From TrEMBL:
GO terms for biological process: tRNA 5'-leader removal. The gene is LOC109719568. InterPro entries: Pop1, POP1_C, Pop1_N, POPLD_dom. Its main location: nucleus. It is found in: Nucleus. Residues 41-108 are annotated as: Disordered. Residues 726-811 form the POP1 C-terminal domain. One of its GO terms (cellular component) is ribonuclease MRP complex. Keywords: Nucleus, tRNA processing. The keyword Nucleus applies. Residues 502-578 form the POPLD domain. This is Uncharacterized protein LOC109719568 isoform X1. It comes from the Eukaryota. It holds the Pfam family POP1_C.
């Protein structure tokens, strides 16, 4: 059989193609295709208006990228010696994308922008507050609290709190202590008298502390804002002196005490932007007073624009930080190839704490702990040498455990993670903390994103054995004046019984954007001011300035809110305008009610003389004077201050009367149903109301609800508070019989209402008169013949006619102080 012939290969395509001859051979096909298209378009070949922009979009893109038009035109203008004017959009884009080492970028009116402003402005509703453009919250009507609380429980949240600014005090140690005792409550005690004193860790710089900053300038002392302060740790080359700091029993008799007091120390005081100017003025006044009294000068400097602050919260906050924080202790391969030494890396290269620090044991840290770290740029992938070093350290630990030293090593690591003040590791730890503290304010900005992309492209070319000379030169030039490692301070927030509270990361301002992008890309949900307040209320923490009515920042903020609401109401027709209510709540009315004494709660009868028709007789007018304080009430923040106004803070005895009214922060929970809004009025129930209240087991259906229902007449709701010509608000006592029966004396106001979507034990934050609360509790104990810590009160929203039952819990009865805040 003859073998089959193999088919010949197809002819090769021609080397050249004559387009004209090819078109002539296909002329018939092209004409038929044109006829079909012309029939479908009706003979109109013009581009539709909606698609015309796409044909010229490449020209706009060229202008956006280059900041100008065609290259020939720009070259001609350069030849004529004229520079083409750059548009405002291009200039603003360059400004927002820049990353200077220090300072905030500002708008035309001087309003500062955060380093994450461009990211937030694309996704969040922005507001102008406290001299900053700040993210208010996600776009919408202000809802979505259920989703935020779900993220808090199951994920991680991140908030850019760089609007909280630091103030630095530098001078002799004892002088700074004297200034703190002058303006801080609670005043810091002598830290080295007792070794178990928590102030010892604060004074050593291992922990931070919360306090209330007061302005002591005459004529009266007034609260400025809650603050967080932290000491810079000191390190002495004298080993004997370093050892003496741990021997607290003999410190008073040793020569180290005098040496310690003459040391120059630094103190950082972090304060909210709403009270920054007032706070720094108060501290400078205290420093001047210290100079006049003792002749010792203490400098008070503003570190605005140097440091940033990121807050990471949620149940998975630790996991998120473990993903992006990679502590370093030596140069990696990429760093060794750099032609310029990094000053930050050089300062901390010999640090042993970064090798021993275990991020997996972050949960063991106590509240308010401070941990210094020198971490890699979170955008860079860890090098193989770093991973190998980590494996060697891990293998070394395993060998130590196998040799019977596991117990000793675990105890040492737990001591380092718990208080950082063990004798063996204390000296090295304070040296690491001091190095990070000194370098965190003057570190170089991170490597630009463009340079990192070029280096990544260079590694890819090298992997494929391609020429990379050009990219290598560009990457080398990009390493000048930039850093590949960042020193940070990791602060653990107080948990308050909830595992959802997280951490604060203090870092150079130029590194905020880098860490922000890394946190978001690893799954963190960004939140604004509104969502942050929801989280604070869900964790029964006060939020500044919303829950600090005795501060000027609160009054200023609420005044702006009232003006915005009034302006929005004027745009609506008169028939649908909402009822005007006092914003902020008339706290002066509570002072006037307190001046009446406990007689208003004895039977709750209204004197007929008070309804004679005169305006001054049937109303409680604002009682503040021009010479007196702007907030005529006192709010204690510690149990020690509350003891000055009461005989017993446990509620066993009646709170005694005082000339100056006292308000306490309380948590309101609905007795059965009801929603308490911001600004709601807390009223004192009469004995008849208490007798009709029953427990849930005794209440049967709607019959019990109808038994106790209490409502004000609709006509009286609008006149409950009346605004005077001066702008102040007064409490108008009722005149008709129905309004008199439903009238209840106000004893407090709600500052933060319920958060929708929270747990069943959701609570509102309010402030009530301490004296009247104690009288109510005593009456309720007599009525119910049982002693419960909760106090039964009535709550009515400003625009509502119905009273709702609630249980009030005094915060200072549950804890020693009320200093934690968000």
């Amino acid at each position: 059989m003859a073998p089959a012939r193999s088919q010949a290969p197809p002819p090769a395509p021609p080397r050249t193609l004559n387009v004209q001859r090819f078109a002539e051979s296909r002329a018939a096909e092209l004409e038929s295709l044109q006829a079909v298209v012309s029939g479908r378009l009706g003979g109109d070949f013009r581009i539709r208006r909606g698609k015309r922009r796409r044909t010229t979009g490449h020209r706009c893109a060229k202008r956006r990228r280059g900041g100008g038009g065609d290259g020939d035109a720009s070259g001609a203008e350069e030849g004529r010696g004229k520079e083409k004017k750059v548009s405002r959009r291009v200039r603003r884009r360059r400004e927002l994308c820049s990353n200077p080492p220090l300072g905030f970028t500002t708008s035309g009116d001087g309003t500062k922008r955060l380093r994450t402003h461009l990211w937030h402005a694309k996704r969040f509703a922005m507001v102008k507050r406290w001299g900053f453009y700040l993210p208010l919250g996600l776009q919408g009507r202000g809802r979505g609290s259920r989703a935020v609380l779900k993220w808090l429980k199951n994920s991680a949240l991140v908030h850019d709190a760089s609007y909280c600014l630091p103030i630095q005090l530098e001078g002799p140690e004892d002088s700074i202590q004297a200034i703190l005792r002058m303006v801080i409550i609670p005043a810091p005690s002598e830290p080295l008298q007792v070794s178990e004193n928590p102030q010892h860790c604060v004074f050593q710089g291992v922990c931070y502390e919360n306090a209330m900053l007061y302005d002591v300038r005459p004529p009266h002392s007034q609260l400025v804002a809650p603050v967080m302060y932290m000491w810079q740790p000191y390190f002495s080359n004298n080993k004997n002196y370093a050892t003496e700091q741990h021997d607290t029993s003999n410190i008073c008799s040793s020569s180290g005490e005098s040496e310690r007091r003459t040391l120059t120390r630094k103190l950082w005081i972090w304060i909210h932007a709403a009270a920054f100017e007032e706070g720094i003025d108060a501290l400078r006044f205290a420093c001047q007073r210290q100079v006049h009294e003792c002749g010792v000068s203490v400098s008070c400097l503003s570190l605005e624009g140097q440091l940033g602050k990121l807050e990471v919260m949620g149940s998975r906050a630790i996991e998120l930080l473990q993903k992006i924080l990679r502590p370093t202790s030596k140069y990696s391969a990429a760093h060794e190839n750099s032609t310029l030494e990094d000053p930050v890396l050089t300062a901390c290269t010999s640090s042993r704490h970064h090798k021993d620090f275990v991020l997996d044991k972050m949960k063991q840290l106590q509240s308010h702990a401070i941990r210094p770290l020198l971490v890699h740029d979170p955008r860079e992938v860890p090098c193989q040498e770093t991973d190998a070093a980590a494996l060697d350290n891990l293998q070394e630990d395993i060998n130590l455990n196998s040799n019977g030293l596991a117990t000793e090593c675990s105890l040492k690591n737990e001591d380092i993670l718990s208080d950082g003040s063990t004798p063996r590791s204390h000296e090295n730890y304070l040296l690491d903390l001091k190095n990070v503290w000194d370098s965190i304010s003057n570190t170089n900005p991170p490597v630009p994103e463009k340079t990192l992309c070029e280096e990544k492209h260079q590694r890819r070319l090298k992997h494929f054995y391609l020429d990379s000379t050009e990219h290598e030169t560009v990457a080398t030039e990009g390493n000048d004046s930039f850093s590949r490692a960042c020193p940070i301070l990791l602060l653990k927030q107080a948990e308050h019984g909830s595992p959802c509270m997280g951490w604060s990361v203090i870092l150079p301002l130029s590194w905020v954007k880098t860490f922000w992008f890394s946190l978001v890309s690893h799954g963190a949900h960004a939140i604004g001011l509104r969502e942050r307040r929801w989280i604070a209320c869900n964790n029964v923490l006060p939020s500044f300035p919303y829950d600090f009515p005795d501060c000027k920042a609160y009054l200023s903020f609420m005044t702006d809110e009232a003006a915005a609401l009034d302006q929005a109401a004027e745009l609506r027709p008169p028939a649908v305008r909402p009822l005007k209510v006092p914003i902020p709540p008339p706290w002066d009315v509570l002072a006037a009610v307190a001046n009446k004494g406990s007689t208003i709660l004895k039977g709750f009868e209204l004197d007929e003389k008070e309804f004679s028709g005169s305006t001054n007789e049937n109303s409680l007018i604002n009682s503040s004077t021009k010479d007196g304080p702007s907030f005529p009430l006192f709010i204690p923040r510690t149990a020690e201050n509350l003891l000055q106004y009461s005989e017993s803070i446990n509620g066993k005895n009646q709170v005694s009367s005082h000339k100056e009214p006292c308000l306490v922060r309380v948590l309101l929970r609905a007795y059965r149903e009801g929603v308490f809004e911001e600004g709601a009025i807390i009223c004192a129930p009469v004995p008849a109301d208490l007798s009709r209240w029953k427990t849930r087991s005794e209440e049967k259906g709607n019959e019990a609800e109808e038994l106790w229902q209490l409502q004000l007449p609709q006509s009286y709701v609008g006149s409950f508070f009346t605004q005077l010509e001066s702008g102040n608000w007064e409490l108008q006592l009722p005149k008709d019989h129905l309004a008199q029966e439903a009238f209840r004396w106000p004893i407090g106001f709600v500052t933060t209402g319920f958060v929708y979507g929270s747990s069943n034990k959701r609570a509102a934050v309010a402030f009530c008169n301490a004296n009247l609360l104690a009288i109510l509790r005593k009456q309720q104990w007599i009525e119910a013949q049982s002693r419960r810590p909760e106090i039964f009160v009535l709550v009515r929203n400003m625009r509502s006619t119905s009273y709702r039952r609630a249980l009030a819990t005094v915060v200072l009865e549950q804890q020693k102080d009320d200093l934690e805040f968000l």
